Amino acid sequence: MAFAWKASGLTYxxxxxxxxxxxxxxxxxxxxxxxxxRGQMDLRFAKWQGGKQGENKSLETANAAAxxxxxxxxx
Length: 75
Known about the structure:
This protein is an alpha+beta fold and about 80 residues long. Helices cover about 60% and strands about 15% of the residues. The protein has 4 helices and 2 strands; from the N terminus they run αααββα. A two-stranded antiparallel sheet has the order 1-2. Helix 2 packs antiparallel against helix 3 (about 30-40). It is extended, with a radius of gyration of 18 Å.
């Protein structure tokens, strides 16, 4: 018997993210606010070239810029 999350096409990480969001939303106001702050992430990355680290960039900002650039090239 397959797990329900697997049968529905979710990855395990996505399943955990959905479950965590449901639990956070079910909490009372004060604990919910504290839990939601813990659930936020700020991922950063740097591109390395020639053995030197480039500028640190926010993954969210870089993804948004790449999506906008991609949408502009498709038209």
